[in-house]
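REQUEST ID: PR-0412
SUBMITTED BY: lab tech R.K.
PRIORITY: routine
TASK: structure prediction, single protein chain
INPUT:
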Amino acid sequence: MGTAATEPPRGGYTADDLVALDDLPPHTELIDGSLIFPRPQTYFHSVVVDLLVAGLRSTAPAELRVRRQMTVQLDERNGPEPDICVVHAEAVTGRQQTRFQAADVSLAVEVVSPDSEARDRDTKPHKYARAGIKHFWLVEMAGANDHPVVQVYELSEVTRAYTLVGIHHDRLKLSVPFDIDIDLADVDNL
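STATUS: complete
OUTPUT:
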């Protein structure tokens, strides 16, 4: 393909198109064959992603890697870009890598942004679950102090849908997918 098309191909774009098209803005996503262009992020979004990445990296076992804003190919027509994903170390193939496969991902995290609320709350979790990603976190701003609240979900193998297993306001302390302990109030120090 080589250059950005002015009209989508019949049937929509594919995951290979997402990689091949020149001149796409960084962090463009592919949802149901449509290109979703990024918008500027809020300060809340930025600091929460930093806080969670640091916390996950400090506790992740050696066989896992924590990455921010990398495309995850769910199928031929879906390549969303979670704010954070935890992948198996062997899935990291080199510095030029542009995407991971859904099977490589242990945890996907979305921090809700005003321009992507429906995608972050509904579309992406549904697609992540259908692709078999076992753990999903949805992070939102709440309370008088605008602090992060993390909703933790696990995949039901029977329904292939996520089940809410916890809501964390002040501290994110979990034993799956690995031992995690993140003080969410630290967002005030970033």
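NOTES: The helical segments are 15-20, 43-59, 117-130.
REVIEWED BY: pending
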